[in-house]
Amino acid sequence: MSLNLFKLDGRIALVTGSGQGIGLAMAEGLAAAGAHVVLNGRDKAKLEAAQGAIAAAGHKVSIAPFDVTDQKAVEAGVAAIEAEIGPIDILINNAGTQKRGAFVDFPAEDWHFLVATNLHSVFYVTQAVAKRMAPRNRGKIVSIGSVMSKLGRPTIVPYTATKGAVALMTQGLAAELGKHNIQVNAIGPGYIVTELNKALIADETFSNWVKSRTPVGRWGETKELIGAAIFLSSEASDYVSGHLLMVDGGLTSVV
Ligand code: GCO
Ligand code: CA
């Protein structure tokens, strides 16, 4: 049995929100596994810096700067990738953000921003990509959910709502796209050291709570999400669909 199951050579992978953090780590990992990665984000300079690093490592990488919350920009961006680079085999819906605050005071505009960034984006990008994958009868769609796809905690109700939606959207898409040999799954990161979590890491009480609440007793690193991303992007997962794969150090499996 060869490990070619996990090779992504010859595949094109679009990773949204991949200028930094989890998205960039996954893009680097997919590139190392052989994929031609297409980096996406709104900050072109950040994408160019990331592109430089991945190219310097000897991997194939392009950039596609468009705003995933703008349906017209998404449609144009995806069409351009397919015309200029080639058919997208793998889509990683990673773009997302976080805003924290008491629910009763949570500004409606922040709610709308989180829904647009974390959920509308998945609708726009997945639709633009899946309608092109379907006639090819092959594709991998991986969305980034969260431990909050299954659990709640105070101050992040809007974020939690969007991540719960991503998990069930994954199941719905798996049901509908399976006939086109498109596998649709999600990854649920636990508490990972990222820019979005900077304030939490700096809060000693919260950080100690994460360590005690997580069986492996520590925060995760962005690179620890790469294995799940390669698995769900490769033929190793051709019979896996509709699944939310938690990468959370065991957090969601214990009280
Ligand atoms: C929080 C954090 C969490 C996790 C994120 C990763 O405020 O509790 O941002 O939401 O870090 O969900 O999946
Ligand atoms: Ca499920």
Describe the structure concisely for a colleague.
It holds the Pfam family adh_short_C2. This protein is α/β, with parallel strands linked by helices.
List the keywords.
255 residues; alpha/beta; Rossmann fold; seven-stranded parallel beta sheet; 7 strands; 43% helix; globular; binds D-gluconic acid; binds calcium ion
If you had to describe this structure to a student in words, what would you say it looks like?
The chain is α/β, with parallel strands linked by helices and about 260 residues long. It has a single domain, classed as 3-Layer(aba) Sandwich (Rossmann fold), CATH 3.40.50.720. About 45% of the residues lie in helices and about 15% in strands. The protein is built from eight helices and seven strands. The chain has helices at about 20-30, 45-55, 70-85, 110-135, 155-175, 200, 205-215, 225-235, and strands at about 10-15, 35-40, 60-65, 90-95, 140-145, 180-190, 245. It has a seven-stranded parallel beta sheet with strand order 3-2-1-4-5-6-7, with helices on both faces. Helix 2 (about 45-55) links the parallel strand 2 (about 35-40) and strand 3. Helix 3 runs parallel beside helix 4. The longest helix has 26 residues, at about 110-135. The chain is globular, with a radius of gyration of 17 Å. It starts with 11 loop residues before the first strand and ends in an 8-residue tail after the last strand. Bound molecules: D-gluconic acid (GCO) and calcium ion (CA).
